[in-house]
Structure formats: C-alpha cells, structure tokens
Amino acid sequence: MTEPKKKFIEFPSVLDQAYKESRRHLKVGDIMSRKVITTTPETTMMQAAKTMGEKHIGSLIVMKYKTPVAIVTERDLLSRVLATGMDMRKTRVGDVMSYPLIKICPTFEIREAARTMINKKGRLVVYVCGKLAGIITASDLIRGMPEAPETSMVVDKFMTREIVSVDEDETVLAAAGIMGQQRVGSVIVTSGEKPLGIFTERDLLSTFIARSRSLDIPLGEACSGLMTSAPAGISIHEAARIMAAKHIRRLPLMKKKQIAGIITARDLVEAYAK
C-alpha cells in the first residue's frame, strides 16, 4: 500500500516578505524622475508640444530667470489650446502654464505623495535644499505602488464607465479638440459603433506633433489597436503592474468581450490615496 503524498504549504520566503515590506515604505526620492526637462514662458506651444513628444513626457517645467515658476502639460495643450481653437504656433507657454508649482520633499512616503497629488490636482516637483531635484507623475507612483491591503480593492470602483468614443472617419485634430473639451486623455475609436482602437494625448504628441505630421489624418489610420486590456474585477495592484510593465497610462477593462470602462494611472493613484 502506497503512502499518501504529503501536501506542502508554500510560505513566502523571508526575502519575498522583506521585499514587499520595503515597497510599502518607498520614498519619493526612490521613484521620482530626476531628469527634468524645462522650457520658458516665451516658447510657443508648438515647440513645447514637440519637445514633450520627442522626449515621451507629459509636462515641462517653466523657467524664468533660471528659477522654476510653473508647469505646462499635454492637458494644457488639449484643453486650453486645441479645444478653444487657439493656434499652437502663436500661443506662448506663458499663456496657458499652471502655477504655483506643487512642491514635495524626497523623504515623503509614496502614499503621502499620492494624497498630495490628488488633493492639489497636479504633478509634483521635488525640492532638495531649495533646489529642483525631480518630478513625480502618476506613472511614477503606480510603478512604485506596493502590494498591500489598500491596493487589493477592485478597479471597478474607480474606473471611468462613460467612454468617450470618436468615429474612425474623424480627424486627429477633431479628436484632440474632443479630448480637450471632455478633459480626457484618450478616446476609443469606433468603426460602425464597434471598438477599433484607442487614441491618446501621448499619441498626438509623439506620433504627430513631434514628427510634424498633419492632424487632418483620419483617426482610423492613427489609432492603436486595443492590444493591451484587462478583465474588469482585477485589483488596483494588478492593474498598476500591467500598466507599468506595458508603459501605458490607461487600461481598457473588458467584461463579456465589451469595454466596461477605462482605468487611468491617475485613477489608480486616487484609489491608493484613499
């Protein structure tokens, strides 16, 4: 008679536990982007947008007399320039930049940074001894988001359910205006009311403005396919892990082969900050 096989329960190793614990206490200085790209109030929004697109970033720190005074973002381009019909070539950064800067210390834990970002509604600039040392974005925060009870909540509670969609025959410029008016960073491109792909503000900057491509191209030719998606019901931590691994800032969530909503990096930061 053969002896029954013994069942072994696998416990996390000491190293695994130590790693998870260390992630819970990450500081702003551990995850901030140290390379800060700057501009000036006199720069045109066209040139600022090109710089953001070429560098694949969503904001520039505005310097005046060698002092950081404000920030200009891709959302400023959409909402304050394109959505209002202003000319990027004639509009200056100083006309649409946001100030004052939201400052934070590198010794803050990342959950404190998340709460500051949500309460102050903007990107955070990191100062050390009175000098600009880095910047913290929502993407930086989700890359540092730990696996913890507060990140085990499901994304369904925080995702955006009202999807902004645009027909494939509309132009890139029209889509940019809609994103600016609706204050969203992406639209779902449809073909005959069926999802065809996604077009984001980063696509606008990096694929079009940075390369001086015409904004009159139909969205159907400009959008990216819905290659990265996730099922509704996953945890905040899992969504953050997928987005960090794929280097994306918004994740379509599927239910019964339909888009149930979209979760963004900022949505995840807001959930983590609660």
Biggest sheet architecture: 3 strands, mixed
From the 3D structure, determine the CATH topology of the largest domain: CBS-domain
Helix-strand topology string: HHEHEEHHEHEEHEHEEHHEHEEH
| Broad shape | flat
Features:
alpha/beta, CBS-domain, 2 domains, three-stranded mixed beta sheet, flat
Summarize the structure.
The chain is an alpha/beta fold. It folds into two domains: 113 residues, Roll (CBS-domain); 124 residues, CBS-domain. It is 36% helix and 22% strand.
Could you characterize what this model shows?
The protein has helices spanning 14-24, 28-31, 45-55, 74-82, 93-96, 110-120, 138-143, 172-182, 201-209, 219-222, 236-246, 265-273; strands at 38-39, 59-64, 67-73, 103-104, 124-128, 131-136, 165-167, 186-191, 194-200, 230-231, 250-255, 258-264. It has 274 residues and is an alpha/beta fold. The chain has 2 domains: 24-136, CBS-domain; 150-273, CBS-domain (Roll), CATH 3.10.580.10. A hairpin with a 2-residue loop joins β5 (124-128) and β6 (131-136). It is flat, with a radius of gyration of 21 Å. It starts with 13 loop residues before the first helix and ends with a helix.
